[in-house]
Amino acid sequence: MHIVEDLNGLRGQVRTWRAAGERIGCVPTMGNLHEGHLTLVREARRLAPRVVATIFVNPLQFGPTEDLAAYPRTPEQDQAGLAAAGCDLLFAPTVATMYPAGQQTQTRVEVPGVSDILCGASRPGHFIGVATVVCKLFNMVQPDLALFGEKDFQQLLIIRRMAADLAMPVEVIGVPTVREPDGLAMSSRNGYLTSGERAQAPALYRALSVAARALAAGLPVPQVETEAAAALAVAGLRPDYVSVRRAADLGDPTAADRELVVLAAAYLGRARLIDNLRVSRPAG
Predict the structure, then answer these.
(1) Sheet holding 271-280, edge to edge
(2) CA 29 to chain centre
(3) How far apart are the C-alpha atoms of 110 and 88, rounded to whole Å?
(4) How far is residue 121's CA from residue 117's CA, in Å, rounded to a whole number?
(5) CA 263, CA 133: separation in Å to the nearest integer?
(6) How far apart are the C-alpha atoms of 190 and 60, rounded to whole Å?
(7) For 177, which of 37, 151, 183, 210 could close a Cys bridge (C-beta 3.0–4.6 Å)?
(8) Is residue 126 flagged as an active site residue?
């Protein structure tokens, strides 16, 4: 596996692959990789002969109360995992490489509407930082396809919209959430949990599972949301939101909408956990 930090090194390798007619898959990450990330790499390897993973802890997507310096960084472990998963090239740029003119004057990319709800309401400006850095990475790597986990469902839809709106020739592919045996969605932020909190954390998946079954059984959306939030609180989590939305665009569902997603975010100690489940609601 090649490891490059500069844009010229990245583009030189990409040109070589392009000259050979090879498609390129891309897996953008912020490092501290777990099995969910490596699943994305292996799926990219299945879909394309060349795979580029990126590791960049993006300061633009951290809010003023979020500790950028404390975000876990495990470069040696990440490199070993990527190589074993079949990654061809790791692009690990510095902040200076990504934002050579500084962050304050950096052109920003915003996907209006869908960026302002749910996690966007709780973390103002977060998705502008995400869209900006992913747009830049797409322009740098120039992949044919890019893979993202469905755990960050709102992020996936924002990136998909951005690529479509800006006519980027990148297929954005969602990959199902990878879970621990007890159902907890794998996340780099799970490392913030104490042992006691880790035992509580699967309550998020359990609450979503109950909510999904209730929706599939035809229970009203407001009732489902209220009962799921109450279940989280009883389990010792502090709900940020529980929301049922249209799966296609995260709009508020009407009675006619069949394909839904129930999304939740909750605080547990230092961690803010997010998760979601897709639901097909019966007609009538």
Answers:
(1) 238-246, 259-268, 271-280
(2) 9
(3) 31
(4) 5
(5) 24
(6) 22
(7) 151
(8) no
**Backbone dihedral region for residue 125 (phi beyond 0: left; psi -120 to 50: alpha; all else: beta):** left
For residue 281, list its beta bridge partners: none
What is the C-alpha to C-alpha distance for residues 87 and 8, in angstroms, rounded to an integer?
19
Walk along the chain (284 residues) and give the pLDDT tens digit of each residue: 999 999 999 999 999 999 999 999 999 999 999 999 999 999 999 999 999 999 999 999 999 888 798 899 999 999 999 999 999 999 999 999 999 999 999 999 999 999 999 999 999 999 999 999 999 999 999 999 999 999 999 999 999 999 999 999 999 999 999 999 999 999 999 999 999 999 999 999 999 999 999 999 999 999 999 999 999 999 999 999 999 999 999 999 999 999 999 999 999 999 999 999 999 998 86
Write out the two tokens for 134.
């992913």
Which residues make beta-bridge pairs with 115? none
User: Cα–Cα–Cα angle for 131, 83, 34, nearest 5°?
Assistant: 55
Q: What is the distance between the alpha carbons of residues 201 and 223, in angstroms, rounded to a whole number?
A: 23
Selected catalytic residue, list 2, 34, 37, 126: 37
pTM above 0.85, yes or no: yes
Q: Are 26 and 143 in contact (CB under 8 A)?
A: yes
CB 81 within 8 A of CB 39: no
Q: CB-based contacts of 112: which residues, under 8 Å, 6+ apart?
A: none
